[in-house]
Design brief:
- It is a single chain.
- The chain has one domain (about 10-125): Rossmann fold.
- It contains six helices and five strands, in the order αβαβααβαβαβ.
- It has helices at about 10-20, 35-40, 60-65, 70-75, 85-95, 110-120; strands at about 30, 45, 75-80, 100-105, 120-125.
- The strands form two sheets. It has a three-stranded parallel sheet. A two-stranded antiparallel ribbon has the order 1-2.
- α1 packs across α3 (about 60-65), α3 (about 60-65) packs across α5 and α5 (about 85-95) packs parallel to α6.
- It is globular and about 50 Å long.
- The two termini are about 25 Å apart.
Length: about 130
């Protein structure tokens, strides 16, 4: 499906930009003058935790699912995660109308599990950890 040993091209990055920002709004930059004064330089902060799943990882999930064919999406999405990645795949599946099944460890954070379920994915517990 996706070669893992190939570096992304500029064309790949631009396509990802289009894919992501159709589904995830850009986060603003904030300047904190007290922090700038403390370190003696300009500091700008981008709060990636303000996305719908509380993590920058939503971008990767959206781009992955956007690049799948309709047939691949109809097969469903399956992954293993302890939290943020699972949330990103669940979010992307919901955005694209695909079914997602996320396997999590039995000791996973209950809040993360609830979030994955809240995004519409099926959660399967498997093993004490991984």
């Amino acid at each position: 499906m996706f070669p893992v040993d190939v570096d992304p091209t500029l064309q790949d990055l631009l396509a990802a930009l289009v894919n992501v920002y159709q589904h995830v709004k850009p986060m603003p930059l904030y300047r904190y003058s007290g922090l700038c004064d403390l370190v003696g330089t300009e500091i700008w902060v981008k709060h990636e935790n303000h996305h719908g799943v509380g993590s920058f990882k939503v971008r990767g999930g959206i781009n992955l699912v956007a690049e799948l064919t309709a047939e691949e999406r109809s097969d469903g999405l399956y992954t293993v995660s302890t939290g943020n990645h699972g949330q990103s795949i669940a979010y992307a599946a919901r955005e694209f109308g695909a079914k997602a099944t996320i396997a999590v460890a039995e000791q996973s954070n209950p809040g993360k599990v609830a979030s994955i379920r809240g995004l519409g994915a099926e959660v399967v517990f498997h093993g004490a950890d991984f």
